[in-house]
C-alpha cells in the first residue's frame, strides 16, 4: 500500500469555466491528461492520494462537479483539502456524501487503518515570514491554526501511530511559524503542501527536515504532473525508494 500526493490540479472541465493553464508556462501544457496518465500508471485501488488544494476553478459546486467526477474516476482513495482558489468548497458534511472514495478533510483526519497513519491538515494561510499582516490576515492565520489543531487532535484521539499533515499554503518560508510549532507539538512526521508555482516561487516554501518534520512541496508543476510517492508500506517513509 502506498500514499501519494499532488496539489494544484486546477481542473476546469465544466464548459462554463474558461481557465486554460498553459498560459502559465510549458509546465502546464495538457496538465490534466499528464496527471491522469501518471496517476493511472502509478496508483492502484489500494493506494491513497492526497490532494492539498486548488482542485477546481469552479466558482460554485455545480461548476466543480465535472472536476470532482474526473478525480473520482481515477484509482485509489483520495483525501482532498481546500485551496485558496476552491471557491466551490461548501457545506463540508454535504461534500462528504458525494463519493465513497473521496474524503473532504476539514477539522478532522483521514485514518488509514492498515498503515496506522492519520492524514491531517488545513488550508493554512500565508505566514508572517512571507507577508505584512493585516487584521484580516491575523484572523485567518489563527483560524487555520485552530483547524490544524482540531485535525491533529482527532488523530491523537484515534491513536494513530504516525501522522502526515497536508496544507495548501506553505506552513513556513524559512522561519519557524505557529504551523511548524503545532506540528512539532503533535509529533508530525511529514508535511506536504502546494500553492507555489514556477521556479522563483518554489523557493518560498520550507523543504527538508526541520524540527523533526519532513517538509515537501507537491505542487503539480513542481512534480512535473506526476503524483509524488510519500509513503510505501514496503519500505516506510524514510527509505530512499519512497523519496524518489
TrEMBL record:
Name of protein: Metallophosphoesterase
InterPro entries noted in UniProt: Calcineurin-like_PHP, Metallo-depent_PP-like, Metallophosphoesterase_sf, Pesterase_CT488
Top-rank lineage group of the source organism: Bacteria
SUPFAM superfamilies: Metallo-dependent phosphatases
Organism of this sequence: Mogibacterium timidum
Coiled coil: none
Gene3D superfamilies, sorted: 3.60.21.10
GO molecular function terms noted in the UniProt entry: hydrolase activity
Pfam entry (one): Metallophos
Limits of the Calcineurin-like phosphoesterase domain: 1-198
Amino acid at each position: 500500500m502506498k500514499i501519494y500526493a499532488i496539489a494544484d490540479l486546477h481542473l476546469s472541465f465544466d464548459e462554463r469555466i474558461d481557465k486554460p493553464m498553459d498560459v502559465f508556462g510549458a509546465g502546464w501544457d495538457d496538465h490534466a491528461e499528464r496527471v491522469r496518465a501518471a496517476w493511472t500508471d502509478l496508483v492502484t485501488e489500494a493506494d491513497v492520494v492526497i490532494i492539498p488544494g486548488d482542485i477546481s476553478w469552479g466558482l460554485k459546486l455545480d461548476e466543480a462537479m465535472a472536476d470532482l467526477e474526473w478525480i473520482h474516476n481515477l484509482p485509489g482513495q483520495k483525501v482532498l483539502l481546500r485551496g485558496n482558489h476552491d471557491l466551490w468548497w461548501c457545506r463540508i458534511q454535504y461534500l462528504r456524501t458525494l463519493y465513497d472514495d473521496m474524503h473532504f478533510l476539514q477539522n478532522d483526519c483521514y485514518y488509514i487503518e492498515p498503515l496506522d497513519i492519520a492524514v491531517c491538515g488545513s488550508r493554512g494561510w500565508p505566514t508572517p515570514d512571507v507577508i505584512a499582516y493585516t487584521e484580516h490576515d491575523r484572523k485567518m492565520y489563527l483560524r487555520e491554526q485552530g483547524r490544524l489543531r482540531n485535525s491533529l487532535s482527532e488523530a491523537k484521539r484515534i491513536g494513530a501511530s504516525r501522522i502526515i499533515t497536508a496544507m495548501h499554503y506553505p506552513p513556513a518560508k524559512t522561519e519557524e511559524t505557529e504551523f511548524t510549532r503545532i506540528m512539532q507539538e503533535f509529533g508530525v512526521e511529514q508535511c506536504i503542501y502546494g500553492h507555489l508555482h514556477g521556479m522563483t516561487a518554489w523557493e518560498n516554501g520550507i523543504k527538508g527536515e526541520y524540527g523533526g518534520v519532513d517538509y515537501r512541496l507537491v505542487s503539480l508543476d513542481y512534480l512535473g504532473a506526476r503524483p509524488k510517492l510519500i509513503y510505501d508500506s514496503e519500505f516506510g517513509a524514510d527509505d530512499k525508494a519512497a523519496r524518489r
